[in-house]
């Protein structure tokens, strides 16, 4: 139980920080667009990475140093492109909160974006493979319980963010509010890209 609770705490502390993945889940939750699929993709992806991290995948990365810079450059490029798209949307006001007339994107496109924001984000690898993986070594023989705690935190937060965001809809009934949201998400994306490019 101690290992599980520690894994739960570590998972919450890492995933709670607003990043590109969380910002996207929030946006899709507000639109009520493929929320279940997107939450599942994000949570299952984290579960896979956490499992690899706890199983010692960090050793493989140390043997293949090219993996980190490759993920860094791909992630930076994707974050810049996605942030630019959000800024353009904020400038034009083309995705204002007109949910009644909004035509959802195909599930493949929506899920594809969530997968890219997950698997092309080096921060996700650093958090799950390295940080959670290294902390799990403090619980020899109980790594599975530790991983279960972190995975539970991931599922809980993504679904809370995806389905809980609908309660924010009354606050986002104006086009101006959505433009502000687009701007904030774009700023988050570019800030993460800057952090990656200078790290």
Q: What are the SSEs and their pairings?
A:
Blueprint: H1 2-15, H2 20-31, H3 35-54, H4 57-63, H5 67-92, H6 107-119, H7 122-136, H8 143-164, H9 175-198
Helix pairs in contact: 1-8, 2-3, 2-8, 2-9, 3-6, 3-7, 3-8, 5-9
Which keywords apply here?
about 200 residues; mainly alpha; 9 helices; single chain
Structure description:
- 77% of the residues lie in helices and 0% in strands.
- With 199 residues, the chain is mainly alpha-helical.
- It is globular.
- The termini are far apart.
- The mean pLDDT is 79.
Strand content: under 5%
Number of strands: 0
Radius of gyration computed on alpha carbons: 18 Å
Largest sheet: none
Distance between the termini: 36 Å
> What are the segments in which pLDDT stays under 50 over at least 5 consecutive residues?
none
Q: Which structural class best describes the helix and strand composition?
A: mainly alpha
């Amino acid at each position: 139980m101690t290992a599980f609770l520690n894994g739960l705490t570590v998972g919450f502390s890492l995933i709670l920080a607003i990043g590109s993945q969380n910002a996207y889940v929030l946006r899709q939750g507000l639109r009520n667009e493929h929320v279940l699929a997107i939450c599942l993709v994000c949570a299952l992806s984290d579960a896979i990475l956490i499992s690899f991290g706890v199983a010692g995948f960090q050793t493989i990365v140390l043997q293949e140093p090219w993996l980190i810079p490759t993920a860094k450059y791909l992630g930076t490029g994707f974050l810049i492109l996605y942030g630019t798209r959000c800024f353009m949307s904020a400038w034009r006001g083309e995705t204002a909160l007109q949910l009644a007339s909004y035509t959802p994107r195909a599930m493949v496109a929506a899920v594809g974006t969530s997968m890219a924001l997950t698997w092309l984000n080096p921060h996700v690898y650093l958090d799950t493979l390295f940080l959670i993986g290294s902390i799990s070594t403090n619980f020899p023989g109980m790594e599975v319980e530790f991983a279960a705690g972190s995975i539970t935190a991931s599922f809980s937060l993504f679904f809370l963010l995806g389905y809980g965001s609908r309660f924010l809809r009354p606050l986002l009934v104006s086009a101006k509010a959505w433009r502000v949201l687009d701007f904030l998400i774009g700023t988050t994306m570019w800030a993460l890209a800057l952090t990656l490019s200078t790290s």
